[in-house]
Amino acid sequence: MRDVAIIGAGITQFGEHWERSFRDIGIEAGMKAIADADLSGSEVDGMFIGNMSSGRFINQHHIGALIADYSGMATNHVPATRVEAGEASGGIAFRQGVMAVASGMHDIVVVGGAEKMTDVDDPTSNEIMDTTSDTQWESSLGVTFASLHAMIAKRSIHDGVFTREEMASMSVLDHAHGALNPNAQFRKAINLDTVLRSGPVAEPIGLFDCSPISDGAAAVVLCPLEEAKKHTDSYVKVSAVTQASDTLALFQREDITRFCATTAAANKAYRLAGISSSDIDVAEVHDNYTVSGILALQDLGLFERGKAGKAVLEGQANIGGKVAVNTSGGLKARGHPIGATGVAQIVEVVQQLRGAADKRQVAGARYGLAQNVGGTGSAVTVSILEAI
Amino acid sequence: MVAVSREWREIPGRYNLVGSKCSVCGKIYFPTRSFCPACRRASIGKVEPYSVSRIGEVYTCSIVHDAPECNNSIKPYAVAMVKMSDGVMIAGQLTNVDLGKVAIGMKVRATLRKLDEDGPAGVIHYGYKFVPLEE
Questions:
Q1: Residue B65, domain CATH
Q2: Helix/strand/coil for B79
Q3: Which chain A residues are Cβ-neighbours of B52 within 8 angstroms?
Q4: B13, B60, B128 ranked by CB distance to A155: nearest
């Protein structure tokens, strides 16, 4: 197995891009990443695209071929593979790309993630999100994706894992950092009251506990670590990328106040990278709802169980705190174009480790982590990147 | 729109809470499984149909305000994960209940109700919902 480096990163503005199509945003991110790696494009010999539901959002399947074509890769017959793993599609596409380079099957791989959500109306978008849970035994019974997270929150608050206010502080954290990210969908700081007083979606979850509906795309370019210097002085090492599964339906778990797949993936990642959770300087966690963010911080071992909520409320997860969490703005403020999210997290960690994160730069960041979740913790991927 | 066949083949589970019991280790599963994830190969051919208890207790719950279009007419409505008396956990709606009184620990029983329909000419979906258990 070869060590792998990230030599280029690109991302679009996240938001509601009514004037732009899936292919417009997908190609923009890919071209930015290729330009960032100082490649012409003809060196690319493999592509992986994370996308959850182009079939339902834009009525287009076969987007591997679409992206290969519109990125100019079809003329070279470069293989392009679409990866779907619910909301973890982007992160798991990244893992596929790393494996392709590590194995020696490919040398220069572009990993993209893209989702165009605003070509359908909001209720349809929510119904598509519901399909990442167990459609037959959860959502078709009226148990929405938001309500599954609400029930995790309700039980966690009942069991004393965190309080409602602590949970809400995850949204405040995301908005504080999103305000510093020019590519974020929401660039405005908010206070705790805004979250607590937002309209109910599924009690206790309110509107400001939820990530938005977004369009966006992100991409990175991978190559063998030993080749990286040929292309750029500003590369980042992939120290580990792991993946773990759990039951599709939430109700089949022994304990719903933790995502065991996160812990399984994280423990393996720390071991492969030869570090512990306390070595992590920056972390992008999958907070599709505020509750998921607090659980992630505990399940990743970044904060102790029962103390993560308090830590976020007290600012320990802000830039300058114990570990800087969601410097991009997270899913809540950066936005959550589903298939793009996992790759966008990698792009943010790359920028931090390169020292190129401008106003949101974490001084001296050496190790960065990204955690991307599909469904209610049914598929989790954890990546650890290291500054060179 | 759901094909009639999909609705029809799930009737045992959706109407009557029929799950599976592994006759090797005794573990109960809902919905039904063809083999036991704990016993794996040893359980093949040894998993029997099992009728899950219809009485249980709310383990966690929520009031849904932002509902799919098919449930617009009933929102806000309550959902719960219910721990049945034989230990099986099931997710579903709570109905015939004062939303202000929905809480963890509430005793409920499963009942058959209309869930929604695929438009005026489509399939009407039925399935279990939970109602408060009269003491």
A1: 2.40.50
A2: strand
A3: none
A4: B60
